[in-house]
Sequence to fold (539 residues):
Amino acid sequence: MSDILHIEGLSAGYGALGVLHSVDLTVRAGERIGIVGLNGHGKSTLLRAVAGLTGWQSGSIKLNGVEIGGARSQGPGRYTHKIVRMGLSLMPEGDALFHGLSVADHLDSGAYTKRAWRERKQRREYVLGIFPPLQKLLDQPVGKLSGGERRMVSLGRGLMADAKLLLIDEPSLGLAPKISKSLVEALMQIDIKDGAMVIVEQNLSLLQGNVSRLIGLHAGKLKGGALAPDLPTNELVHRDSHLHPYH
Amino acid sequence: MDPYYLLLTAVSLASIYGLLAIGISIIWSSLGMINLAQGFTFTAAGYGAWLVAENISTNGLAVVAGGVITGALVGALTGAVAFVPLYDKPNFPLRSLIATLAISLMGGQCLLWLFTPRVKALPKIFGVGSVHIGPATASYDKIGAIACTAVLLLLTLGWMKRSRRGLEIRAMMQNPEGAALVGVGLRSTAMAVMMVTGAMAGLASVLLSQTYFISPFAGTTPLVKGMVVALAGGLGSVAGALIAAVLIGFVEAFTAVELGGQWVLITQFLFIIAVLLVRPRGIAGMIEHSRE
Fold:
């Protein structure tokens, strides 16, 4: 299987602050990966660095074999749209929604390739199949929706084009346990085909048993499983006991 | 005083100021830039239309096209100088404000140098004369101004609503980072915004030059009025800019008829101060923190 994402020696941060320290990570086609860790240990920064949204970064990031990383000290977001067009879909923390635009507009905005834009009606149906509650909210401005509904819009928007790599930042953040559980279940039902999915979470139990690999992120460094895809998750969790928030 | 004359004057002024104000408003909300060069775009487009009329054809469509195309080009130039190199640097709002001010001042001097201070007049593209609609008398250039503005606004709003590019602009107005995450290139979208708003200023210039002469700094007053309308309407709101344009147009027409033309700027500024005191975000403006 080919590598969808290959990260080598990635360091990243904001201003004088270094958050990630020489991280290596390989994600293969067909994999669903969970990255767990506590607040402030660099989970979001890892995803943002792949999208080119950090203040500065250095190290190699290859998406589908094409280099998108390198050293950069300014201009966060300057190349994000180009990276996105290469097949990346980031559903960020805080959802990055357009509050005055309707749900339908959001889904359409996610269809950035020519083909996806032509097929946007069919694709909208596909997303509504994954998140049925959005069906009757299509004409509502997103600013009026609840937290769970917004998360669905953000996730649905990221599914409208043919992204190879889906990066999902804390699907459960700020949501009631029941809603976050059903959201994660919906995410697991998405057909990733020959792509890959990386979910970053604080709540280990939401991902356990659902993903092909669980990786810990502690103090800006990945712990276990980052390169070896066959490690059973239970073993990893016991070995790196500090991964568990309540240990 | 003829109430129909007042109404018609107000609406035709509103359509001209509205074109500038909507441009300023869209640029502010999508690029985060206060474009002080919009007045220069306006003036340059007037000269573009004049060059077409002198050298190519005095046909109305050709003159309008000359103004609109020059406006779009100058808009693109402003974007290339004041937005593209600056937008990801610290303090962008202030830097771009100064950059657009510089473009406006330097551009005015260049026009003065190229075309001399002598004023130019555009041909009457709508002809001279007037029609009687019931009890009202409407001159051709007022009807033409209103009709042209309506057509351009409908085209622009439809394009903003239906096309992918329009959706990208609306997305960028609300959340630039979210827009980048759905593959919107900020620079190319910004250039599209600058060209469309420049074209609007160009049309406004041709329309206003049916009544006034073109001179190197003719854009200053329309810029001030466009800015006033955009602020009173609420920066970022096209509907608000339209409402404010009609209100300001009424204030101008009413003042000119009742008190005399020299009072127009005073009553307009009193009006906008009153609006902003009662409603600081303007008539239909976004609340500041709703834009992330």
Notes: The radius of gyration of chain A is 17 Å. The longest strand of chain A covers residues 3-14.
